[in-house]
Design goal:
Helix content: 25-40%
CATH architecture of the largest domain: Alpha-Beta Complex
Largest sheet: 7 strands, antiparallel
Shape: globular
Distance between the termini: 6 Å
CATH superfamily of the largest domain: Naphthalene 1,2-dioxygenase Alpha Subunit, Chain A, domain 1
Strand order of the largest sheet: 11-17-16-15-14-13-12
Number of helices: 12
CATH class of the largest domain: Alpha Beta
Number of domains: 2
Bound molecules: FE2/S2 (inorganic) cluster, fe (ii) ion
Structural class: alpha+beta
Number of strands: 17
CATH topology of the largest domain: Naphthalene 1,2-dioxygenase Alpha Subunit, Chain A, domain 1
Length: about 375
């Protein structure tokens, strides 16, 4: 194992937050550092790859890129979700070139080899000469299957672990699931996705998501909704950076979406927001379940897809369509407000005089924790 950062950088990150420094500029401004993260961090951990509700029927196939790797999410005939590298085992052509609905097989455009939805080779046209077709034989080592990628699912979320060596997904999700006590995710159905891009490194973009400090300065609408006195910085638990904020009763009485049934404890009177390393943010709200999927597009550009889930049948009830449209607009506006400050951080990190910064101890524990998780994951 080699250490990427200098000992001075590592020591400064490990200092108490009052005197600690964050990651050096290179971690945000260097395309090479994103390459390193793609080879290490994003391959070693469980990464959110998509929604089961994006491939609802047998034979549905969705193309995704994770850590620069082309993948396909496949809904098999047996109902299982599987993930494969999007490459033909013959001569390495990209095998799926557009998302598919109800496909019966996966066929390559180049020499028309076909594969079953669960991976095994089905047939090779003209393999033994003109007109001499060959069927795939499961027991024959020269009949290659599609190359599988380790995947597991939780609620509607599909996760992949590219290097295959992470612990079980349940272990990765453990801190997040602990925070779901009293909150029944199974009541929530997929409703909408809000898409956006930020001109900032993925770490700056996700740090900003969990930065409660800036709400008073950047988000006028959210600022009115959140009780200022109840705001705290983030707490940390293993790979989770999180906080809760409480509601008074009137807030929920004014909620236009159905409140989930049988909420208990903290889930009844508060919202939870958590950043699960590397780049998935999750919120449990009495009327919504939210997944923010952040994905680096380049060292200085990040895509976000916010998947909104709602309870009480509102996802498909036309009476709630306007409310959902308004909710989408609210999050688009919020992204717009964050867009500029994320860009300012990206521009600022080009300044050589910046030394990793100073933290505000009350608010910035999450940001320092993220720096430590990154350091551990690229070593
Ligand atoms: S590369 Fe796919 S069949 Fe030849
Ligand atoms: Fe923000």
């Amino acid at each position: 194992m080699t250490q990427h950062f200098s000992q001075e950088v590592l020591d400064n990150i490990q200092n108490p937050i009052e005197t600690a420094r964050g990651l050096p500029n290179e971690a945000f401004t260097s395309p090479g550092f994103l390459d390193l993260e793609n080879r290490t961090l994003f391959r070693r951990h469980w990464v959110f790859a998509g929604r089961k509700s994006e491939i609802p029927n047998f034979g549905d196939i969705k193309m995704v890129d994770i850590a620069d790797q082309p993948l396909i999410l496949v809904h098999g005939k047996d109902g299982e979700v599987r993930v494969f590298y999007n490459v033909c085992p013959h001569r390495g052509a990209q095998i799926v070139t557009e998302d598919r609905a109800s496909a019966r097989v996966i066929a390559c455009k180049y020499h028309a080899w076909t594969f079953e939805l669960n991976g095994p080779l089905r047939g090779r046209a003209h393999f033994d000469g003109p007109g001499k077709h060959a069927k795939g034989k499961a027991e024959d080592p020269n009949c290659p299957s599609l190359f599988p990628v380790r995947c597991e699912t939780w609620h509607d979320a599909i996760f992949v672990n590219l290097d295959g060596n992470a612990g079980p997904l349940a272990e990765h999700l453990d801190p997040l699931i602990e925070q779901a006590e009293g909150f029944d995710l199974s009541q929530f159905e997929y409703a909408r996705t809000v898409k956006g891009t930020f001109d900032s490194n993925w770490k700056l973009t996700v740090e900003n998501w969990s930065d409660v400090y800036h709400v008073f300065a950047v988000h006028p609408t959210l600022n009115k909704m959140m009780d200022e006195q109840a705001r705290t910085g983030m707490l940390t638990d293993r790979n989770l950076i999180y906080c809760r904020w409480g509601y008074d009763e009137s807030t929920l009485e004014n909620e236009a979406l159905p409140i989930a049934q049988n909420l208990t404890g903290a889930a009844k009177t508060s919202s939870f927001m958590g950043h699960l390393f590397p780049a998935l943010c999750v919120s449990y709200h009495p009327a919504m379940l939210l997944f923010w999927d952040y994905k680096p597009l380049a060292h200085d550009r990040t895509q976000v897809k916010l998947h909104i889930y709602v309870a009480g049948g509102a996802a498909s009830d036309p009476d709630f369509a306007d409310v959902l449209d308004q909710r989408v607009q609210y999050y688009l506006d919020l992204n717009g407000e964050d867009d500029e400050v994320c860009r300012l951080m990206q521009v600022g990190r080009r300044a050589d005089g910046y030394d990793g910064g100073r933290f505000a101890p009350y608010w910035d524990k999450g940001t320092l924790h993220l720096a430590k998780l990154v350091v551990d994951s690229v070593s």
